[in-house]
Amino acid sequence: MRIAQVATLYETVPPQAYGGIERVVSYLTEELVRQGHDVTLFACGGSRTHAKLIECCPCAVRLVEDTADPQAFHFAMLEDVVRQSGNFDLAHFHVDYQHFPFSRRLDCAHLTTLHWRLDIPGLPLLYRAFADVPVVSISEAQRTPLPWLNWQGTVHHGLPTDLLTAGDASGGYLAFLGRIAPSKRPDLAIEIARRANVPLHIGAKIDNGDLHYFERDIRHLFNDPIVHYRGELNEVQKHTFLGAARALIFPIDWPEPFGLVMAEALACGTPVIAFRRGSVPEVIEHGVTGFIVDTVDEAVDAVRRLPEIDRRACRAAFEARFTAPRMVADYLPIYDRLCKASRPRQPQPQPACADLIS
């Protein structure tokens, strides 16, 4: 099958450090190539892939967004996808709803994976206007605000099977991994660790947009001797970080559509203590791969109950449910169904994005 994968341009595919969507796009793209599909990846310069790469801007947009309009790069890319669409059987978009006005001009089938929350005011009006666009959710919980969309299925994220291996909790600490942001509640992670009297290691990115929150609400908490801030971690560091942890603390305060870090923890055999928000009940099996809690008190008690969790069961759950081959196995029937419903097209030569920006 000839497939276009269309990524956001804010980060490289895969990201060098923090980055969820671009990481999932990379895992999906590489597994499709491994299985023999003809894949073209639209992404920013510096991306690495075994697919054909169309570089739609010179570098990750986050590096220039203070001095350039990030949407300009995205709209130029989407127009290029339209021009080249006759060369594909299907275009798979990962750019939220930016491409919706473009999608009706495509000369191939198309699918959109919605990676973001859907409970934002204004979204119903937009999605009503594009109710024909076929979309995929990354959890059943994600669909709740807009159950009437043109849902084609739910596909949980997956990681390469051999990317992360099971650790032994030798570090003895609790782990917080991701981003320092109000919705991630690092303050609650610190409170849980303090009350459980267990060290907390934090591997997290601090975005410019969250800097005020960090300075006002979080920086002073890092002075606690129980807290160890390890900065933003790359893929290799993340592996060691999660594998050596007793548990991942996931005290989110928003309807997280998936939470890739939970699957990463399970791949390392590390149980997860997570607040009951968004997709958490779909990813974590209470009492088997971690504990789902509603309060800080329950989270502290869960830390004490961690010896009840078999780390081998965590790894087994990852292998059964959250691998890249499983993710591709879920997507391919959707691709096939949409392609069969789309009228056939003939490939046509088209100018590349690089020709437009040179």
Automatic annotation (TrEMBL):
Keywords: Transferase. Gene3D superfamilies: Glycogen Phosphorylase B (3.40.50.2000). InterPro entries: Glyco_trans_1, Glyco_trans_4-like_N. Residues 18-119 form the Glycosyltransferase subfamily 4-like N-terminal domain. This is Glycosyltransferase involved in cell wall biosynthesis. Residues 173-307 form the Glycosyl transferase family domain. Pfam families: Glyco_transf_4, Glycos_transf_1. GO terms for molecular function: glycosyltransferase activity.
